[in-house]
Amino acid sequence: MTEINEISEIIKKDNLRTILIVEEDSYFQKKLIDYLEENIPRDIYSSNVNLIDIEKINDISTILENMNTYPLGHNKRFIIILNLHEANEALVNNLIKFNLSPNKFAKIFYFSKKLIKKFSVDREYEFNHNNMRKIFIKDMLKDNNIKLSKILEELIIDKFPESRIGIENEVEKIKTFINKGKVDENKIKELYNNYERTVFAETYSLDKYINNKNFKELLSNFNKTKFEKNIFMEIGRIAWKYRQYLKIKILQGRNKTDNEIINATKISKFQFKYIKAETNKLKMSDLQKTLRELQRADKLLKSSDISQKTIIFNLLKNIAN
Predict the structure, then answer these.
(1) 3-state SS assignment for residue 77
(2) CA dihedral 36, 116, 245, 140 (to 10 degrees)
């Protein structure tokens, strides 16, 4: 797994000039930007760190010019390419050609939500594989010196949220049950046995108002949550649920049995009963609209000058009406 301590290793290695990160939750992207902000002096940061979103900038000459520009007052320039999966064929071909002989004074980080065929880089990480979540959780526990019984480990893997930021938060919670190096497994069992899956528990109070199209109640209860503080994690969690709703709705339309849907979606039986109940309350058009609005808000938060409060308000209004 690639953690924050490995970012420094990637940056230090001159032979790693092009790096592809395939992920859906922007976890590594956030870690990378945080690292660069902490380690590059503010007065030269903007000259040496360039963020390019393919959804907004897809002009080949502009992108290549940025990638071939030399650093200013620093030994390296860092180019972060977002949404590579949205690049057209011509741009992809030009980037492939660039990767064969990249600027030796730059490091290019490509972020994509899916693998790109024949896109060769010096190092590649993929976090979309179904088993990667389990590996990530186990690595997080190991890195924090948390040793659990196999049964308890499987329990928390089932109950932990999907996003890696959410998983980090849960690991921090578990650390509070460690005293003098000894883990209180009984308290951890009690904690997670009393939970619905965390991904639902932390946003369900808002989700029911979203699903019921009750904007007034949604707005009045919004301030009781940590939604705004953990905005990207919360949007990611809700989006994950709505993608599951959509998958189930599609499979139900194909007359698939519950067991077939569970196998196809990789959702545990524990989760499925809750997700299915919510799915049955929603129309296909509502699911598609909510996912579009979540995606739009995520993009605006990451790339626009609109205030976070305005984006969140419009998001809530649009998905609850």
Answers:
(1) strand
(2) -40
In this structure, the answer to whether residues 307 and 219 fall within a common structural domain is yes
Length of the chain: 321
Same domain, 107 and 141: no
3-state secondary structure of 52: strand
- Same domain flag for 204 and 276: yes
Which 8-state DSSP code applies to residue 70?
P
Q: And the tokens for 33?
A: 């930007």
Whether residue 140 sits in one domain with residue 63: no
Domain span holding position 154: 132-195
Q: Are 232 and 311 in contact (CB under 8 A)?
A: no
CA distance 242 to 294: 10
**Residue 191 and residue 206 share a domain:** no
- Using DSSP's 3-state secondary structure scheme, residue 266 falls into coil
Q: How far apart are the first and last CA of the chain?
A: 41
Distance, in Å, from the CA atom of 67 to the CA atom of 106, rounded to the nearest integer, reads: 7
Last residue of a domain, one of 154, 175, 195: 195
**Average of per-residue pLDDT across 277-285:** 88
Looking at 121-125, 179-183, 251-255, which range is the least confident one?
Answer: 179-183
Overall domain count for the chain: 3
In this prediction, residue 224 has a pLDDT band, given cuts at 50, 70 and 90, of low
Q: Is the pLDDT of residue 246 over 60?
A: yes
For 31, residues 6+ apart whose C-beta sits below 8 A from its C-beta are 3, 4, 7
Tell whether 165 and 115 lie within a shared domain: no
- Mean pLDDT, the chain, rounded, equals 84
Closest alpha carbon to 16 in 74, 76, 81, 65: 76
Q: Is the pTM of this model over 0.70?
A: no
Residues 6+ apart with CB under 8 A from 202: 161, 166, 225, 234, 237
CATH value at residue 62: 3.40.50.300
Closest C-alpha to 111, from 18, 35, 243:
18
